[in-house]
Amino acid sequence: MSDQFSYKNDELFAEDVSISTISKAVGTPFYLYSATSIIDNFLSLKKSLDGLENLICYAVKANSNIAILKLLSQLGAGMDVVSIGEYLRAKVAGVPGEKIVFSGVGKRRDEISQVLIGGIKQFNIESEAELNVLNEISLSLNKRTSITIRVNPDIDAKTHEKISTGKKDNKFGIPINRAREVYLKASQMLGVKVVGVDVHIGSQLTDLEPFRMAFIKVAELVNNLLKDGHEINSLDLGGGLGISYKKTNDVQPSLQEYGQIIRETVGSLGCEILVEPGRFIVGNAGILVSEIIYKKFGEDREFLIVDSAMNDLIRPSLYAAYHEILPIKEPNNNSSFVCYDVVGPVCETGDTFATQRSLMKMESGELLAFMSAGAYGSVMASEYNTRPLIPEVLVKGDNFSIIRARPLVEDIIQRDIVPDWV
Ligand SMILES: *Cc1c(COP(=O)(O)O)cnc(C)c1O
User: Fold this and answer.
1) 234 C-alpha vs ligand 1 centroid, how far in Å?
2) Ligand 1 within 6 A of CB of 276
3) CA within 13 Å, CB half, 193
4) pLDDT digit string, tens, across residues 248-291
5) Tell me, which fold does domain 5-33+283-414 have in CATH?
6) How far is the CA of 355 from the centre of ligand 1 (A)?
7) Exposed, middle or buried, 110 (CB in 10 Å: 0-12/13-18/19+)?
8) 279 lines ligand 1 (CB under 6 A)
9) Active site residue 271
């Protein structure tokens, strides 16, 4: 976990600001991100790719707040986007089109046109149908669009099945065995220009060997494509680098080893290397802060009912994900410990953050932090139960700013339209 969240003077701090101070200013619940941690993660990944011509295209879907995109853009990051909305966010953050790649299995025609007009480094193509549509739209705009084809290497990423994307039964990419045929087809199209190969096998990989196996298959394909006469200058190796969600007995994969695997498998092909990390950059740089509304005694257990819910952070109910929970007040030698079920107010049994978790004895009104919530947290939030999206706050040193405001319930309600015939 990021060392930017640590106890000082008996309470949890984010960098140099106490979380209780932020909580008083913002109200709970809220997401809180450490700018220093985001910057450190980016720079350490950059360092692990030393010696390779590379571009780190941050996967915007992990956390798309424009303040964070701008922070990364200022460090030289490119962006990987999967919708026109994410593309426009990247543009607003100041990322030039030539550093943005467009991924995703279901790019719509209107999205394709808008991105082509705005400028893009490359499209990562996921199907022949998409290739045909891109070719057609590019020709109509008098453009020749750079493409890679995302191949599906049929590798088990050994991660949660809902975030595994590189097996032959997943919806992603073109089967690697059919790739040469599709590259041949693409090379005959005047609206597209083949520049490279793309692969992304899944998310939250803590074992790096599946990367090695996938990249070896990509290298074989590149050699065949070169033989077939294609120019391959760019390899997009996707994201997926895992993070540690637990304080203990959870391994964070070694960046150095990741860089080494890339060098050993594809480093001598003379290509620019793109990587698309999302979770690695922001996951441990963010937390969700909540207040305990009630304590409740069940037949055989105690519940902590907090003011955030599955609509704010869906990972525990969607993936059975584990988030470390820290009290904002630091436990000490006099603290007693209790096993709690930590749950939200939403009317679903799935609205459970943790079951039978040992925590310092807590009281209503006290604050808790769900750690490692910077990636796939706020971006997956919904307004289920007409609960407004919660604010986001960015800390750097002793400074903090709200980077997304809490909407008013009235604004949510006003969006609905009652037709005059009702
Ligand atoms: C989700 C995704 C990523 C980012 O994955 P992380 O596990 O967050 O690094 C990168 N590339 C593509 C194509 C994706 O779908």
Assistant:
1) 18
2) yes
3) 12
4) 766 788 999 999 999 999 999 999 999 999 999 999 999 999 99
5) Lyase, Ornithine Decarboxylase; Chain A, domain 1 (2.40.37)
6) 29
7) exposed
8) yes
9) no
